[in-house]
Amino acid sequence: MRITTAQIRKYKQDKKRFAALTAYDVVTARLVDQAGIPIILVGDSLGMVVLGYENTIPVTLDDIIHHTRAVVRGSETSMVVADLPFMTYHKSPEQALDSAARCMQQGGAQAVKLEGGRVMAPTIRRLTESGIAVMAHIGLTPQSVNQLGGFKAQGKTKVQALTVMEDALAVQEAGAFSVVLECVPAALASLITKRLQIPTIGIGSGPDCDAEIQVVSDILGWITDFQPKHTKRFAHLADQAKQAIDQYTAEVGGRTFPTQDNSFSIDEEVLRDVEAAFPAQV
Ligand code: KIV
Fold it and tell me: How many CB atoms lie within 10 A of CB 108?
């Protein structure tokens, strides 16, 4: 039985802070699920940390569905949230409905996430009234990176801070069951968290959100070329993987791997028969 939106809302009432993580494949999903993490997001960060794009814009709905299926196969109790990619929900609430339906019917997701505040409220309302659980995402919204002028904190000026607060209230009012606050100043995120009934899920938004979400590749040290300010490495998997690949390469070249222990045996008589059938050419 998977975690439900009702349980996620109850965490807030019970002041139970929780962690959420992204995952894109079956192995990672299994680990995250076994850690008891209630929400796995198949984020469009997929584009940057798995597919090698510069930002999330090129990610397609088919990409998200493909990876959501893997994450669903790897998990049993976590709620799996599929991230709606760029331009798969902006054109109309009907387009959003079609995209969300595909994530759920073909991908197996229990909920979808979309970026945007007040402007997306009618879309969120259309989805939730159709029975689709929606996680909203405000503050720094990476799909708008070109319009925002880069990956930077949102809500520092009075106008921006009021906008972020209004966005948060609008997505709650529209029926979102939770809202991601990305790179919002900590004190503002804290205030929003106090004003909302739905859980705030912070990333780069300080310690007072109801929950925290991170990109799994960042916290595991799997991506080393760039470390965002809002993350922390809890492991150094890329360093360990590099060491292992170097050692494997050296052992194959030096004929110390594979050994008999890694090999299969054959009856000597069978081998003699094969040698006799194919004698060495002189
Ligand atoms: O795509 C993603 O991974 C996200 C999280 C950073 C919230 O949107």
Answer: 17
